[in-house]
TrEMBL record:
<dbReference type="InterPro" id="IPR003791">
    <property type="entry name" value="UPF0178"/>
</dbReference>
<protein>
    <recommendedName>
        <fullName>UPF0178 protein J40TS1_09520</fullName>
    </recommendedName>
</protein>
<comment type="similarity">
    <text>Belongs to the UPF0178 family.</text>
</comment>
<dbReference type="Pfam" id="PF02639">
    <property type="entry name" value="DUF188"/>
</dbReference>
C-alpha cells in the first residue's frame, strides 16, 4: 500500500506523514507548481503543471488497487474507487461505492445552482476535532491493512 495525497491545499500533510512513518507506509504528495511542496525525508514529492486537473490526473494514472488516496475531490475519489483503492477525505471521511454517487450528484446540483446565480456555502473551516478524526481514521485504516498483511 502507498498513500497518495492530493497535495493542492491539503491541510493535514503533517498528520499524514507522522502516521505513515509509524506504519512504514510510503507517501507520495502530488501538487501543482502553484502549491509548492517542501521536501520531507521519506516522502516522495511530485510537482505537476499548473492546469486545473493536472494533480488529479497524475494521481488517477498512478494509483493502483490497494493504495490509499487522500483527497477532497469527489471526482478523483470516484476514479480511485474504480481502481479498487481506498479513499479518505481531509476530514477523515471514507469515500466508498455506497456514498460516492450521492456526493457527485450533490456537487452537480450545487454547481447548477451557482450557474443560476444562487450562492452556496463552501466547506466549513477545518477544526482540531477534524484533524484528530482524520488521524484516527487513517491510523485505523493502516492498522487494518497491516494486520491483513501479517495474517
Amino acid at each position: 500500500m502507498k498513500i497518495i495525497v492530493d497535495g493542492d491545499a491539503c491541510p493535514v500533510k503533517s498528520e499524514i506523514i507522522a502516521t505513515a512513518r509509524i506504519f512504514s507506509t510510503p507517501v507520495c504528495m502530488v501538487a501543482s507548481f502553484d502549491h509548492r511542496l517542501p521536501q520531507v525525508e521519506g516522502v516522495e514529492t511530485v510537482q505537476v503543471d499548473r492546469s486545473s486537473q493536472s494533480a488529479d490526473m497524475f494521481i488517477a494514472n498512478k494509483v493502483k488497487a490497494g493504495d490509499l488516496v487522500i483527497t477532497q475531490d469527489f471526482g478523483l475519489a470516484c476514479l480511485a474507487i474504480a481502481k479498487h483503492a481506498y479513499t479518505l477525505s481531509f476530514r477523515g471521511e471514507t469515500y466508498t461505492d455506497d456514498n460516492i454517487d450521492y456526493l457527485l450528484e450533490r456537487r452537480a446540483e450545487f454547481a447548477k445552482r451557482r450557474r443560476q446565480g444562487a450562492r452556496t456555502k463552501g466547506p466549513r473551516p477545518l477544526t482540531d476535532d477534524d484533524r484528530k478524526r482524520f488521524q484516527q481514521n487513517l491510523t485505523k485504516l493502516l492498522q487494518e491493512k497491516q494486520e491483513k498483511r501479517e495474517v
